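User: Assemble these into one structure.

Assistant: Restating your components, then the assembled model:
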Amino acid sequence: MFAAAALLVLTAAAAEAKPQGESMSRPFRIVVHGGVGAIRPENRTPEQMAAYRKDLTEAVRAGQQILAKGGAALDAVEAAVRVLEDSPHFNAGKGAVFTADGKNELDASIMNGTTGAAGAVAGVTRIKNPISLARLVMEKSPHVLLISEGAEAFAKEQGVEWVDPSYFHTERRWKELQEIKEKEKQKKTSDAREADDIYGTVGAVALDQAGHLAAATSTGGMTNKRHGRVGDSPIIGAGTYADDKTCAVSGTGKGEYFIRTVAAHELCTLVGYKSMSVEQAADAVVARITDLGGDGGVIVVDPAGRIALRFNTPAMCRGWSEPDGGIVVQIDRE
Amino acid sequence: MFAAAALLVLTAAAAEAKPQGESMSRPFRIVVHGGVGAIRPENRTPEQMAAYRKDLTEAVRAGQQILAKGGAALDAVEAAVRVLEDSPHFNAGKGAVFTADGKNELDASIMNGTTGAAGAVAGVTRIKNPISLARLVMEKSPHVLLISEGAEAFAKEQGVEWVDPSYFHTERRWKELQEIKEKEKQKKTSDAREADDIYGTVGAVALDQAGHLAAATSTGGMTNKRHGRVGDSPIIGAGTYADDKTCAVSGTGKGEYFIRTVAAHELCTLVGYKSMSVEQAADAVVARITDLGGDGGVIVVDPAGRIALRFNTPAMCRGWSEPDGGIVVQIDRE
């Protein structure tokens, strides 16, 4: 049964696994995403595109610096996601979209691929960096998932940075909500729907020099979503999964499809049980989401430092570190 | 790669798959659980044990009657779980345990193995049958998971049966909370912990005559849990998963371990990708939870009507329908 498996692994083994970078350090990698969708023509100005690229680069660099010094994958993904949460350009933290009620409800999750420990929060409204709260849930509580006021009460105990809900008010996201509400009126539909722009989540996956993996995902949800709707980002297995034996995954897109297909965990099992490469497994998971009618993308890294970035939308904001220390950032299909 | 797989399937194939029961109906099965743990000596009276058995039998019968008439697996699991939610003896619905704040917060989820559709609610406090609300989320909303007030606002729109929170107050569960709080004081620990009795969740999995699978899980959470803590029951992939191609699973136990291992989905992938029988896969998942230090159990049914019930605790309340129309109920290891 494992002959075919071994063959696949050999076929998939590639260049990037050799140790590079400063001194004799072992391979390390960080990959980030800032959501999928299609950049609207009015946002496709050189300034706006440069702003996306700058923040994606900074997110990769934040993780890369930690990994280069021998730091932990877990620290790297948290640091990278914090950069994207603090940016107004992505749908997480500062740039979170508005619910139908005109609020910002944030979700996040993080997982340690070595121990299988995980933490997540959903429906928080006053936490500047939900990813760091998710990490505290993992490390300082006996629980995995805390929601709403319960999550915020825990945040207060832990001394997490608190902001007024108005911190998450950005003019662009507010305008998107108004546009969608206007479209709804005309179409007489009440479905929550995505803005016709970059949406989804932000996330990061990393491999550190000790061979450990971690994954993190954070989101502001869907524009015009129903109050209390939770997507895949805080759901371990759906939006986030990490396992040192297979790979680390963060997903972005229409969360319901990621929950139903348990996308991140499914991807790890395709690598672990079907001996697929991370690229093959990422393709299979995105294909399944496409078949069900969903949009989205995934980023993946495995213990050899091989990476995959796959999506079925016109664009996915993304970036990664190269073994030689370079940083690559892409938005459209290339 | 599939030679070994085929062999395993042949080895695992067993007696129960032949069509039986009234007329020429195709095989159907329902399996239910009412939580894991260890029955306390003071609850081990003939009356109390008979009460557990009676409600488990009724739950199986409710599902069995639907399946015998050619009804859907989805209807069968919902009906069975409603019986257990209405019973004061299990930790779901009426019998829900208390949070540390002295409240009852309920979670539930349901999944259709044919379409991969799923619905879930978490943190509801006034819904008599959370499993039916989860089904409405699946069928009447574009979302999968709704939490807290958002879930209750949706329930109101849908005209779901509403109860005063006092409906969930049972003397036994209140006493359990006080006992745990007393133990906490003595030990100076603030961890939420399980009562030393039957805890966890209730759940059901079913195969209908059309060959379709469904799974459903409902819970009152953990005694003395932190407000806002969500376990595995509303998490598709963790506590509940169904896929007509592999199997349907409902889990019960310490939810955090089921979330971290994505237990229900993992079990389906072991059947689908590793060609394990449902018993082998159930053993593997329970072993993994045991290795991590968790308690729990799973119930499983596959498209041929083979079932598995596995747990690592002294007891799991459980029952199932036999192909000949009989109903078996067990509590302790037998």
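The longest helix of chain A spans residues 46-68.
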